[in-house]
Design goal:
This protein is α/β, with parallel strands linked by helices. The protein has 14 helices and 18 strands. The protein has 2 domains: 253 residues, Ribokinase (UDP-N-acetylmuramoyl-L-alanine:D-glutamate ligase, 3-Layer(aba) Sandwich); 187 residues, L-fuculose-1-phosphate Aldolase (3-Layer(aba) Sandwich), CATH 3.40.225.10. The strands form 4 sheets. Strands 14-11-10-15-18-17-16 form a 7-stranded mixed sheet, sandwiched between helices. It has a 6-stranded mixed sheet with strand order 3-2-1-4-5-6. The protein has a 3-stranded antiparallel sheet with strand order 7-8-9, sandwiched between helices. Pfam families: Phos_pyr_kin, ThiN.
Length: 451
């Protein structure tokens, strides 16, 4: 029977902190739906701050790991990472020669913490035995300088070095990564088939431990899936840029790339879409006509942190929910970015209470707010408010700052988590009541209690 899942092999060291090495590679393979295979070359004791111990696996055991998985399962593409000594390098080169799969070589030399991961006497072995077998070599600036004996200060320098490494080693292609090169963009320079190609992305603040491993693993996974080299790199560039921006803020040193963001965000967006769509339909069926304000109601649900960065990461009802005769009707479908005001409110609320990601706005009137406060006291809900007349002038002068200021003010006013926040309006601004919950279901339950 034909194997339906593609496989990718990582020949690399183990990172006990889970940020780099085979751990990063396997997470990356999974993110692309590729089954990961492993040949461990070294076991390291490391965390986000330092590498405290290294134990190299015997070369014959490294070679046998490759042979075992290749003979039984099959390898669609492979990559190398940490190959710490010359004997391991020779054993890997001798073994992979027996198989016909693309090989991505990440010439790992130094850990993010600065610890050496490739012995000085092994650099020559890497150049002599491994690079000639490479479909692609993926050095960063410092690794490329070491391999070429040249300094890199610009994109043009990177082009010269990429070509030099390819021509002198016989590697099919070389990409010099641009994260360490000066400039606002991270420009990766590929030399392939006698031509250059640049891959550009803005340099983003975030977590960088495991960047090189994850980038090369993403290329490997996409080669395994049948993509051409240049297309595989293009996908990997997007993947690693997202992974850095969404990195896991753990440890006290260099925090690790978040490989899961690539699949978590689309999956979470679909869950949010389904849950909010169902909640909007139920809200319509409740038919709370008297709760709909003149400007209409919106119902929002945000991606979780750290994925929620702007209003585009919050789903809402396009066109809002309005009074339609004696009924209530959503004008349009649920879409991300469909809300502005309420989205900013929930994003601010999440800064204090990250698990509370949903909200709805309803009509303010003296009668309604008196009812809500009475019910809140009975049900144990907490109510707070903000007064736009108290808004500082510097906040008023800043576009989009009023709502974050208001929500923060209301939370700090009662020094605990409010279920309901209302504001008293201002010139040209309708007063409003906002109801918050962990999810749309919880918001709906509160609305049912309130009516």
């Amino acid at each position: 029977m034909k194997r339906l899942v593609k496989t990718a092999l990582t020949i690399a060291g183990s990172d006990s902190g889970g940020g780099a090495g085979i751990e990063a590679d396997l997470k990356t393979f999974t993110a692309f739906g590729v089954h990961g295979l492993v040949a461990i070359t070294s076991v390291t004791a490391q965390n986000t701050q330092a590498v405290t111990a290294i134990h190299d696996i015997p070369p014959e055991v490294v070679a046998e790991q490759i042979r075992a998985v290749a003979e039984d399962i099959g390898v669609d593409a492979a990559k190398t990472g940490m190959l710490s000594n010359a004997e391991i390098i020779k054993a890997v080169a001798k073994t992979v020669k027996n198989y016909d799969f693309p090989l991505v070589v990440d010439p790992v030399m130094i850990a993010k913490s600065g610890a050496p991961l490739l012995r000085e006497d092994a650099v020559d072995a890497l150049i002599k035995y491994i690079l000639p077998l490479a479909t692609l070599v993926t050095p960063n600036r410092f690794e490329a300088e070491k391999l070429s004996g040249m300094k890199i200060r610009s994109v043009e320098d990177a082009k010269i070095v990429a070509k030099k490494i390819a021509e002198e080693t016989g590697a099919e292609a070389v990409i010099v990564k641009g994260g360490h090169i000066e400039g606002e963009e991270a420009v990766d320079v590929l030399y392939h088939n006698g031509t250059f190609r640049e891959y550009r992305a803005p340099k983003v603040e975030g977590c960088t431990h495991g960047t090189g491993c994850s980038f090369s693993a993403a290329i490997t996974a996409n080669l395994a899936k049948g993509l051409g080299l240049e297309e595989a790199i293009e996908v990997a560039k997007k993947f690693i840029t997202l992974g850095i921006a969404m990195g896991h803020r753990i440890g006290h040193g260099h925090c690790p790339v978040n490989q899961s963001a690539w699949i978590e965000i689309p999956a979470e967006k679909w869950r949010i879409y389904e849950e909010l769509t169902n909640a909007v339909r139920e809200f319509e069926s409740i038919n709370p006509v008297r709760l709909i304000p003149e400007v209409g109601t919106n119902f929002v649900y945000s991606l979780p942190l750290p994925y929620a960065r702007s209003t585009k990461d919050v789903a809402g009802v396009k066109g809002r929910i309005v009074k339609y005769g004696n009924s209530v009707k959503a004008v349009g479908p649920v879409e991300f970015g469909a809300s502005d005001h309420l989205a900013r409110a929930v994003l601010t609320y999440m800064r204090f209470y990250p698990e509370y990601r949903s909200a709805i706005n309803i009509r303010y009137s003296r009668e309604i707010i008196e009812e809500i406060i009475e019910i809140a006291q009975e049900r144990g809900f907490k109510v707070s408010f903000y007064d736009r007349r108290e808004e500082p002038e510097e906040i008023k002068a800043k576009e989009g700052a009023t709502i974050p200021w208001g929500i923060e003010t209301a939370i700090k006013r009662i020094k605990e988590r409010p279920d309901i926040i209302y504001h008293l309006g201002d010139v040209g601004k309708e007063p409003m009541i906002l109801v918050f919950g962990r999810n749309p279901r919880e918001v709906l339950e509160k609305i049912k209690m309130l009516i």
